[in-house]
UniProtKB/TrEMBL annotation:
Residues forming coiled coils: none
GO molecular function, one term: FMN binding
Designated name of the protein: Flavin reductase like domain-containing protein
Listed cofactors: FMN
Family designation: Belongs to the flavoredoxin family.
InterPro entries: Flavin_Rdtase-like_dom, Split_barrel_FMN-bd
Keyword Flavoprotein: yes
Pfam family, one: Flavin_Reduct
Keyword flag Flavoprotein: yes
PANTHER family, A to Z: FLAVIN REDUCTASE LIKE DOMAIN-CONTAINING PROTEIN (PTHR33798:SF5), FLAVOPROTEIN OXYGENASE (PTHR33798)
Length: 201
């Protein structure tokens, strides 16, 4: 076994190690809106559900050269956002939104995505996603290390949108959703083989 101490690695080296080891990771495709009304969209793979009651999810958003990314800043200013599930049909468009644009320009417009009115929050959702979670900001934490910082966002899910073709008996048909996960580097993964295991009594 090889022992690797993160405090002896650069930020880039730590990122490459962790993202290649912890995989697959779900991808949160997040829309947020600035105080000036610019609709932002960006993907984040440091993301997961953290609780069913209350219904909470988390997103880690690393700062760039000490500055908050548009998504984090918008969420903190407006207090709302929408998380879309990334799937085989929208993953290429999701990837395109990771481009570096000035904060006064919209990735949604640039990529040609289709905004639609959300049911509960004021931030628009995107029609290209079959599963969406409308969220309000529950908690914000900042983690600082060396010359870097991360905004840790906890969102409360206030509305779930699921395409009718995917929803049956209270669950989302994962096989029909065809979610896409992030691996290390530029690699992604589709769902693959599905199997079941009985839990012990």
């Amino acid at each position: 076994m090889t022992n690797i101490h993160p405090n002896q690695l650069s930020k880039k080296e730590t990122y490459r190690l962790l993202t290649s080891a912890v995989a697959p990771r779900p991808i949160a495709f997040v829309t947020s809106i600035s105080e000036d009304g610019v609709l932002n969209a960006a993907p984040f793979s440091y993301f997961n559900l953290i609780s069913a009651e209350p219904p909470l999810l988390s997103i880690s958003i690393g700062r760039k050269q000490g500055h908050q990314k548009d998504t984090a800043r918008n969420i903190l200013q407006v207090g709302e956002f929408v998380v879309h599930v990334t799937d085989e049909d929208n993953v290429k468009a999701v990837n395109e939104t990771s481009m570096n644009l000035p904060s006064d320009q919209s990735e949604v417009e640039k990529v040609g995505l289709s905004p639609t009115v959300s049911d509960v929050v004021g931030v628009p959702s995107l029609k290209e996603s079959k599963v969406r979670f409308e969220c309000t900001l529950e908690k914000h934490l900042v983690f600082e290390e060396r010359d870097s910082a991360t905004d840790f966002i906890i969102g409360r899910i206030v509305n779930c949108y699921v395409d009718d073709n995917l929803y049956k008996d209270g669950v989302v048909r994962t096989d029909k959703l065809k979610p896409v996960a992030r691996l290390g580097g530029k690699e992604y993964a589709s769902l693959g083989k599905i199997f079941e295991l009985e839990r012990p009594e």
